[in-house]
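We close this part of the discussion by returning to an individual protein. In the encoding step, the backbone of a single protein was reduced to a row of integers, each denoting a local shape. The sequence in question and its structure tokens are set out directly beneath this paragraph.
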Amino acid sequence: MDFLSLVVLTKNTSTIPILGPIWNIIVNVLGVIMNVIYLSLEKIGIGNIGLAIIIFTLVMRIILFPTSLNQQKSSRMMQIMQPEMKAIQDKYKNKTDNASMMAQQEEMKALYEKYGTSMTGGCLPLLLQMPIIFALYRIIMNIPAYVPHVYSIYENVMNAIGGSSAAQKLVDFATDNGMKNILAQLHNLGVGENVSYTADQIGNFIIDFLYKLNPSQWTALQGVFTDTNAVNAIQTAAEQSAHINNFLGINLSTAPSAMGFVPNVYWIIPILAGLLQYLSAKLMTAQNAGMAEGNDQSAQMMKSMNMMMPLMSVWFCFTFASGIGLYWCASSFFMIIQQIMMNKYFGKFSDQELLQASMEKTNKKRAKKGLPPIDEKTVEKRIEKAKAMANTAEKNRMAVIAKQSAKTKESTEYYNRNAAPGSLASKANMVQMYDEKNEKNKK
């Protein structure tokens, strides 16, 4: 990927091989959804980025609900089959021979078929969600790229201050105001150096730059330019930006960390993000209680994650612009509602009913592929076959060990005969007999 696509987010397409076109399609489709939401709010007189982010997050949770439901089903099935899975793992513990490993794999495969799931059942929904989640962050971080009405606010300023020719002044402004991240991105664009980036590319970055300014920085920016048109454009954009970014007294373009380390209203978002993340994790753990109990490594990892994720949420939302924090809070809130609904839904079914439904779904898929249906008896036969394979492998392994032991014993008795074991005589006798044995072999 060209580095510029990382720092100039405004509608810049990805050049990742294979995944690039798919990524661009996802981002653009989600961008259209965000634009429709914002325009709808504008038409009823409440154009606000905060409300647009919340509604956008809700729409995304609805779109992703099928993958979340499948993930929940898979987690429930994993919980049901956990005792049998652990029994198989204990059975083959410390057995590293090829036959035992193959037998264990066969038993595990049969067990997954018995419960109508797969080893990747819980991971696949997450993998499907990941590109969408990354695309969501890209859109939330750079609203002007996907909402033309918002873009026009900052475009007016860019044109008034002189477009790409004003880039060096922005470098000086970023330096004077301690905007290290912005300054680094400007330098990466090659501002002031002989780098072949187009005026449009630098202009796009200026719009991204302006979108990230908080109210105090807008005020400071007015002192950088002396032209009346530029100053007026900056004042107008500052007012419009403050209006669309204001959410319950919080400016969404401002990071809580920029407001200092004395508690203030901006701290509400990171604290709320941490609490909602913790509650969401607790609800998910309650649904997967069987997997969260015990002292095994996976259970301990789950407990650690349930503590670490809320703390990470607080840190990220404290560091990033409040708009990202608002999205994080909204996403966690809707996930909590979703988790409560799914917990209530799955709570209506017994383990046997879920198992039966899962096997019926699996058999429908097998029928489409022309494969015979499976049932518990069929799976039990496969498991018994796998057990027989393991027993045979174990017998063969023990036979080899016994044969080797017999050879060792026979050799020891041969060399120690007619002398007390461990004596000098036995050692001399051993050397003599070894020589005799070699002589016979030569003949």
Q: What stands out?
A: The chain has 18 helices and two strands. The radius of gyration is 34 Å.
